[in-house]
Amino acid sequence: MFYGYIGDSKGLNDVISSLLQGRSGLLELFVNRYFLSLKVKDGQIIEFKCDIGGFTNKKNINNYNLLVYCIAEILSNPEGFFAFYEDTKTKGAPLGSPVGSDELMIQATIVRKELDEIMEKVISPFAIFKAEEKKPEVSFFEGKNIVEAIALSEEPVVSVVRRVKELLQEGKLDIYEFREGEGGDDFEIDYVMEKVPLRKVNIVAILESLKSSNFSGIAKISSPTYTINLFCETGNIFAVYPVDFDIFEFFLSPDKNAELSLVNIDKNIVKFIALRYLGKPDIDTVSSNFMEISKLFLGLSKHRRNALLLISEKRGDRFIVFRDGQLVASLNETDGVFRVTNSLNFEEPYFVSLFFYRKVENIAPLVYLFMINEVLSVFMKHSPTKINTMVLREVVKYPFLTLQEGKLHMTKNPGETEEEQLLNLLTFIIDLCSQEIGEDKQAEELEFQLRPFKDIFRVLDIDRYLKIAQE
Q1: CA 382 to CA 391: how far, in whole Å?
Q2: Rounded Cα distance, 301 and 56, in Å
Q3: Residue 208 φ then ψ, to 5°
Q4: Contact yes or no for 308/357 (Cβ under 8 A)
Q5: 140, 225, 284, 426: which sits with the fewest CB atoms below 10 Å from its CB?
Q6: d(CA 25, CA 43)
Q7: What is each CA distance from 194 to 50, 259, 263, 338, 385, in whole angstroms?
Q8: pLDDT of res. 72
Q9: Which contiguous run of DSSP H or E holds residue 9?
Q10: What's the Cα-to-Cα distance from 121 to each of 137, 146, 175, 179, rounded to whole Å?
Q11: Strand, coil or helix: 330
Q12: How far apart are CA 58 and CA 62, in angstroms?
């Protein structure tokens, strides 16, 4: 078995042309965010799988054309990883005739140059063509993108691409629709605010504006002794880290010495970033001395997993997000600042953590815990003895809770089980307090006690969680 890193087109050519000479087995590639496997017999490629276009194993596909296009596409950014196995059991799309690796690379290199010449007009290989004439040589492209045109044509790839270029220049072919491609999206980081002192802003008003503007990203509040991360999706705060920080009291009386940063991150990415803080890693900080990173990239892509790959280097952390096996974002965080990076070359030694995607929302349990503490505060005024007996006896059933200075705090990020348990505890304490002082008296005192938080409740939209509690 062979595996390793590919840094440029020469490295890719060496792997495909030189490594495969006279060998039989399976070459897997993760290059330019795409997964490609080549089944080889005596140095000749006989089958392949590629996640570009989604045509593999479908009828009426010119598999040779599609394979050449796949190689040409990864040549546009030839960085990634490879692994070669002496395994011939894996099935892929068969080629009509075995293809030599040298011939394949020559064809793909020519096609790459031709594609580069038309990309300014096409913008994206997934842009849909509109035929301006009804002649067969033009109407063939109607409703297709360039990938589909190549895969469905009996002509050589180079001829198809050159035909597209000529028809675009002559005005016989146009673009009428742009669709999201099969590969990773263009990804940007935008700092709306960076280290603005809280004494200069109204934090509740800012969070309210984020809600109205459908902001997605991270609101980071930092001081020399602590950092709070608020994770937002389309205007709604869906998670807070750390979970033992009382954000309700903080928003009511912000630390004027703290600073606020707002980083805009795509809504499809921000929940993956939150995994690093709130999720339990499936692989936890394993040294590169004991792990081959190429296998991890290939496995995530091949099996189409949703995951966050965290690479910790001396200069900072690398956040690499996979969605359905596609690498959709790669961010570097240094000194608390995120920047987009495209490189997959990591500085040795580094440490690897892997988080498979799972739910990270924790606002509901934080709301329940806040309300539990508020009801306990009312209860304490009237029945301090009972709270030390009945309530505390109930609380000890929840090992993720701890009592400090008369308030309950969580010791870990709550999952669905803990969320349900907190809701049950809230119901129990409300009923107990109601029996002790009366429902009307409890409602009156709670309303007075919660009045200062009304703006914060609106920002966090806690009514939707309290409705569940009331039901």
Answers
A1: 14
A2: 16
A3: -65, -40
A4: yes
A5: 225
A6: 9
A7: 41, 8, 8, 11, 49
A8: 94
A9: helix 9-13
A10: 19, 12, 8, 15
A11: strand
A12: 10
> By the 8 A CB rule, do 175 and 81 touch?
no
Average pLDDT, integer, range 66-93: 89
Give the model confidence (pLDDT) of 305-346 as tens digits: 999 999 999 989 999 999 999 999 999 999 888 999 888 999
* Cβ within 8 Å of residue 259, ≥6 positions away: 195, 196, 197, 198, 221, 222, 223
Longest alpha-carbon distance in the chain: 90
Neighbours of 14 (CB within 10 A): 13
Cis peptide leading into residue 384 (ω within 30°)? no
Beta bridge partners of 241: 229
Antiparallel, parallel or unpaired: β 227-233 and 217-222 = antiparallel
pTM for the full predicted model:
0.85
- The answer, yes or no, to whether residue 381 has pLDDT greater than 90, is no
Distance of alpha carbon 93 from alpha carbon 58, whole angstroms: 9
CA atoms within 13 A of residue 95's CA, in its CB half-sphere? 20
Distance CA 103, CA 207 (A): 58
Length, in residues, of the chain = 471
- Sorted by where each begins, the domain ranges of the chain are 2-178, 190-356, 363-470
State phi, psi for 409 to the nearest 5 degrees.
Answer: -130, 155
Distance CA 273, CA 259 (A): 21
Structure-block tokens of residue 422: 């907190």
- The token pair at 282 is 């499936």
Distance CA 455, CA 460 (A): 9
Residues 249, 255 contacting (CB under 8 angstroms)? no
* 55-58 long-range Cβ contacts below 8 angstroms, 24+ apart: 55/93, 55/148, 55/151, 56/92, 56/93, 57/92, 57/93
Residue 376 near residue 387 (C-beta atoms within 8 A): yes
Using pLDDT thresholds of 50, 70 and 90, give the confidence band for residue 58: low
